[in-house]
Amino acid sequence: MPTIQFQLNGTAITVDTDPDHTLLDTLRGRLGVTSAHFGCGAGDCGACHVMVGDRAMASCDMPMWSVADKEVVTVEGLGTAERPHPLQRAFIAEQAMQCGYCASGILISAAALLRRNASPTEAEVRTALDRNLCRCGSHNRMVRAVLRAASDMATR
Ligand code: FES
Ligand code: FES
Fold first, then answer.
1. Residues 6+ apart with CB under 8 A from 11
2. pLDDT value, residue 79
3. What is the pTM of this model?
């Protein structure tokens, strides 16, 4: 079986894998990295989003060959319980989500936005989160949380 190397949350990873296996299956099934979730399996819901470079991308339909030598970040790489990422602090402060299923994909989309644009407008936040489905109506609180995190990061 071929090996594929990539960076995962700052650590060099080498995995033996079918190059056509998805990144999501590899993360969850092979590497024990479970923050990204399987939702639609078709690139439509955002539950499986991971950051590749500075872009949030669906890992459910991303073949392993396409991440070779790339930098991949999941929520496990954003922060820890002891040292949460400003986005994680802001989502808690704004009570911005009601489930743990969509949450990691939304955090990743927001983190990718802030990596590209440290001071987004509300419209830019809404556009960045547009591909992430939330069925419980928390969108406005999520947008407030992202803007709060951007503000906190600017004043640190
Ligand atoms: S599970 Fe990947 S976008 Fe829905
Ligand atoms: S917070 Fe997960 S569906 Fe709304």
1. none
2. 93
3. 0.96
Q: Are residues 15 and 40 in the same domain?
A: yes
Tens digit of each residue's pLDDT (9 = 90 or more) over 57-76: 999 999 999 999 999 999 99
Provide the number of structural domains found in the chain.
Answer: 2
CA 133 to chain centre: 13
Q: Is the per-residue pLDDT at 156 higher than 90?
A: no
- Boundary (domain end) residue, out of 16, 46, 77: 77
Domain containing residue 101: 86-154
Top mutation candidate among 40, 135, 140, 141 for ligand 2, by most atoms within 8 Å of CB: 135
Are 72 and 96 in a shared domain?
A: no
Chain-wide mean pLDDT for the chain? 96
Ligand 1 centre and the CA of 24: distance in Å? 9
Determine the Cα–Cα distance for residues 45 and 68; give it in Å rounded to an integer: 24
